[in-house]
Amino acid sequence: MGKLFISYSSKNQKIANALCEYLERQGIRCWIAPRDIPSASNYAGEITRAIKSAEQVLLLYSKDACKSVHVKNEINLAINNAKSILPYCLDDSPYDDDLEYYLSTRQRIASCGDQDRDFQNIATILLGHAVEAPQKAPEPSAPKSDKARKPIWIYVLAALVLIALCAWLFFLRPDSAPAPGPGSPVDSLAVDTTTHTPKVREDTVKTPAPPIQTGTKKEEPKKDVTADTFTGKIKNGYPDGYGTYTFKQSRRIDMHDPEKRTAQKGDYIVGEWNNGHLNYGEWYGADGVKKAFIELGDNSDVQSDHTFAKCVKP
């Protein structure tokens, strides 16, 4: 088989690396981050190219993967590129709304609690060696004895009775009287069902009056020239998704950044945000020189707080 892309949450990295090593020993070529991302490369671009070139995608699904923005982006990209997806469920967490649409009809592997057996089962399915359980042949029915056979005259008698009953119902039923002809009392009571469309008086249709022009022009809201800018999607005033964030003044990179880095005016970050929270990105100075690659990863505590300032389109 071709190359296999492994999608997982960073909190399940240990089991993802163990599964990757096992599959490669079975002759299955794997692509897994961050092992296969060259240094100083664009993180998002390398993942996109890996999914497009892969033959299949193996998803390690768990309660942590359910909260991972990276996992959902990877599965969405795999669907858009018509890739085969095999979910391996590490726990019994149900699919959330974002993933159920894509995965509800796909074959899934539920963990049996034995990691070695799980890995062996996954390799078997990926290599196409799964053997279906043999179907049990139906037991032959015992031949009926001659004593159980009924005489043929019973079937003939039953057929004659059925024919007689049908004839009586058809010829002697009470509602078999001839239909009334023209001029009969029933015919004289016929109702003309022709419908007539009522005419609408033209003077009752009123044309709505045109809006009164006041002569005043609505003023456009003034744009805050000091606000930071974002080239991608802006949700409730905060960056959300992939794009470029440019600082108009000195600001803290992210409240969840343990190094507490500060960007200067004119610096910009090319990366991915989730409701104002930076997931990962490349930080450049105002002169275009790369300063650092920042990867904050999935943070389950970041649900409603916005760690970046409000921004506008450039």
Rg from Cα: 37 Å
Output the CATH topology of the domain at 4-127. Rossmann fold
Q: Fraction of residues in helices?
A: 25-40%
Question: What is the CATH H-level superfamily of the domain at 4-127?
Answer: Toll/interleukin-1 receptor homology (TIR) domain
Strand order of the largest sheet: 14-13-12-9-6-15
The top level CATH class name of the domain at 4-127? Alpha Beta
Contiguous runs where pLDDT drops below 50 for at least 5 residues: 130-140, 142-148, 184-191
First-last Cα distance: 46 Å
Main structural class: alpha/beta
Task: Indicate the overall shape.
Answer: flat
Q: Spell the H/E element sequence.
A: EHEHEHHEHEHHHEEEEEEEEEE
Number of helices: 8
Question: Strand portion, in percent?
Answer: 15-25%
Residue-averaged pLDDT: 79
The major beta sheet can be summarized as: 6 strands, mixed
The appropriate CATH architecture of the domain at 4-127 is: 3-Layer(aba) Sandwich
**How many individual β-strands?**
15
Outline:
This protein is an alpha/beta fold and 314 residues long. The chain has eight helices and 15 strands. The strands form four sheets. A six-stranded mixed beta sheet has the order 14-13-12-9-6-15, with no helix packed on it. Strands 2-1-3-4-5 form a five-stranded parallel beta sheet, sandwiched between helices.
Topology:
Blueprint: E1 4-7, H1 13-25, E2 30-31, H2 43-53, E3 56-61, H3 63-67, H4 69-80, E4 84-89, H5 97-103, E5 109-110, H6 115-127, H7 152-171, H8 185-188, E6 228-230, E7 234-235, E8 238-239, E9 241-246, E10 251-252, E11 262-263, E12 268-274, E13 277-284, E14 290-295, E15 311-312
Parallel strand pairs: 1-2, 1-3, 3-4, 4-5, 6-15
Antiparallel strand pairs: 6-9, 7-8, 9-12, 10-11, 12-13, 13-14
